[in-house]
Amino acid sequence: MKRRAFTLVELLVVVAVIAVLIAILLPALSRARESGRRAKCMVNERQLATAAILYVSDSNSLVLRDNATQWVTPLNNYVNTEKVRLCPETLTDPLLPTVAITGIPGLSNVGNAYTPWIERTSITAKPVSGSYAFNFNLYKSFSVGPLGTGDEDSNLTDADDTGMTFGTIDPPLFFRLPITEKITNIPVFADGVWMETFPSPKDTPPIDMIAGFFNPQGFNEMGRIVTRRHRNMSNVSFYDGHAETMPLPKLWTLDWNREWHSPNPPPRVRQ
């Protein structure tokens, strides 16, 4: 019996059906990959928050701000920050530009929604990169009088009291030990375009949701953590050790400092 071959029309129908199935499945697969990267990002932030909490417990002080690498070096004794500093989403489009902030090309660069920030204190120093911003108000407070007299944990001069220029950043807003209230609403880390942030309730969302907003003078710090990295969501870890994925407007409802008052209603964030 002679076997009947496919006609051209039948072959085209099969190809069309396969194409339709692929078109239906690809967005679902893409969303699944995004969900996996977002989940890995949340795990990273949870580990970093746990490291910060352990540091506070062992040192009986808030996190030391190392002059070279800020929170990275102090927390290295509690977690291998090399493995958890990068959100998987920031590895997906390495061609997007970063923004140099030092005037020396390739030295220190602000990241964006899909590229990490890079910090390097000199041309010869090993660069430190990452995707998360630390809550500046959880650093050891800077001296507001004679060196050391403004610290929450000591009347001695500490490393973070010297060589710094942040003494005018509202020292009363820094947290003090022991932190016992609202710990489920105090952010430790959030997705960010720079390695630290000290937001104000008056900050507005950035116009560019890919680049975010960075100003070394500290203007509009919310712009460092409000981006489209996870579409219209952000991962945040908290001082009690848990982490959440939340809508971007909810970032204004978190207790970023000791005297935070959430705006009502929260700012509208472009989708």
Task: Summarize the model shown.
The chain contains 3 helices and 9 strands; from the N terminus they run H-H-H-E-E-E-E-E-E-E-E-E.
Secondary structure: elements and pairs:
Blueprint: H1 8-59, H2 72-75, H3 81-84, E1 99-100, E2 109-110, E3 117-119, E4 128-130, E5 132-135, E6 187-191, E7 196-197, E8 233-238, E9 243-247
Parallel strand pairs: 5-7
Antiparallel strand pairs: 1-2, 3-4, 5-6, 6-8, 8-9
What is the terminal-to-terminal distance? 63 Å
Secondary structure: number of strands: 9
Largest sheet: 5 strands, mixed
Shape verdict: elongated
What share of residues are in beta strands? 5-15%
What order do the helices and strands follow?
HHHEEEEEEEEE
Helix content: 10-25%
In total, the number of domains comes to 1
* Radius of gyration computed on alpha carbons: 23 Å
Mean of residue pLDDT values: 81
The tally of helices reads 3
> How are the strands of the largest sheet arranged?
7-5-6-8-9
Decide which structural class fits the backbone. alpha+beta
List segments where confidence is low: pLDDT < 50 over at least 5 consecutive residues: 143-169
Characterization of this structure:
It is a single chain. The termini are far apart. The chain has helices spanning 8-59, 72-75, 81-84, and strands spanning 99-100, 109-110, 117-119, 128-130, 132-135, 187-191, 196-197, 233-238, 243-247. It is elongated. The model is unreliable at 143-169 (pLDDT under 50). It has one domain (9-253). The chain has three helices and nine strands. The strands form three sheets. The chain has a five-stranded mixed sheet, with helices on one face. The protein is α+β, with helices and mostly antiparallel strands.
